[in-house]
Amino acid sequence: MNINAAFVGGGNMGGALIRGLIARGLPPQQISVGEAHQQRRIALADELGVHVTADNREAVARADVVVLAVKPQDMAGTVQALADVFAQRQPLVLSIAAGIRLADIVSWSGSQISVVRAMPNRPALNNAGATALYAPVSISDAHRSLAESVLGAVGTTVWVKDEDALDVVTALSGSGPAYFFLLAELMTEAAVKLGLDRESAQSLSIQTLFGSGRMAHESDGDLARLRAEVTSKGGTTEAAVRSFDAANLRGIVAAALSAATDRSREMAQAFGKTKTP
Q1: Which of 55, 59, 166, 157 is nearest to 117 (CA)?
Q2: CATH number, domain containing residue 71
Q3: How many helices (H) and strands (E) does the chain have?
Q4: 92 domain residue, yes or no
Q5: Tell me, what CATH number does 209's domain have?
């Protein structure tokens, strides 16, 4: 990969992507990071050897791809401040901000730029991320490939056909790790109440979470079959699954994902309609 990459925001996700790109062979000297926090700049420079600056305009000045890794509420001001640089350089702009619509990013830039939206998740920090990407039909194959290469440096990628699907992705894989952690946490607490010591319960829950994820990842993707293979007729697992069914676990999960999807859309309304000063 022979490109100049710039990151606007060097926090957890930005840092994970930078590490992934370097691991894939992109030289650190071809990566610039615009980061407001001094300690974070120092840490990135010391650990990774990338160019860091408090000036976002300096960071993106020579970039072929710019990753916008700032909070949704900061996106409008960030893009507006870079509009003339984008117009002159015409980089691929890759946004990983939840909820912020592509049309708003283009509008804030003041010119027609190539924008791809992506929704990664936190396991990207461990090179096990799941990322969905969306691009309009106007985006070239070269830019699509570039976007996939950047996000693919920290895990798997999938393309979605319409932008609204990213709200569902946010609810599914974006927020999803918290759901699995919550289930493991509740399993641990239940086991302790049933008499198991906490250290053992936590260790077994975490390893079960890890092992189950690995089994699913290495399978053909038929989750119902995997579940059935663990559920012996008349056994302990069947008793637990029946309890889940009686409590309407399916409905609870559906309601949770619906709530997260709605919140993603609310964020687009709250942060995506800021007026240009």
Answers
A1: 166
A2: 3.40.50.720
A3: 12, 8
A4: yes
A5: 1.10.3730.10
Residue 76, strand partner residues: none
Same domain, 25 and 157: yes
Strands (E), 28-128: 31-34, 51-53, 65-68, 92-95, 114-119
User: Domain ends where: 143, 170, 197?
Assistant: 170
- Asked if 64 contacts 3 with a C-beta cutoff of 8 angstroms, the reply is yes
* DSSP bridge pairs for 155: 129
β partners of residue 31: 5
164, two tokens: 């609204």
pLDDT tens digits along 182-235: 999 999 999 999 999 999 999 999 999 999 999 999 999 999 999 999 999 999
Q: pLDDT tens digits, residue range 119-173?
A: 999 999 999 999 999 999 999 999 999 999 999 999 999 999 999 999 999 999 9
The owner of tokens 């189950």 is: 212
Structure tokens at 121: 């998740």
DSSP string, 106-134: HHHHTS--EEEEEE--GGGGGT-EEEEEE
- Do 183 and 110 belong to one domain? no
Structure tokens at 234: 């008349």
117 assigned to some structural domain: yes
- For residue 200, give the H/E element and its range: helix 198-217
Question: Rounded to two decimals, what is the model's pTM?
Answer: 0.89
Overall domain count for the chain: 2
Range of the domain at 63: 5-170
Inside any domain, residue 274: no
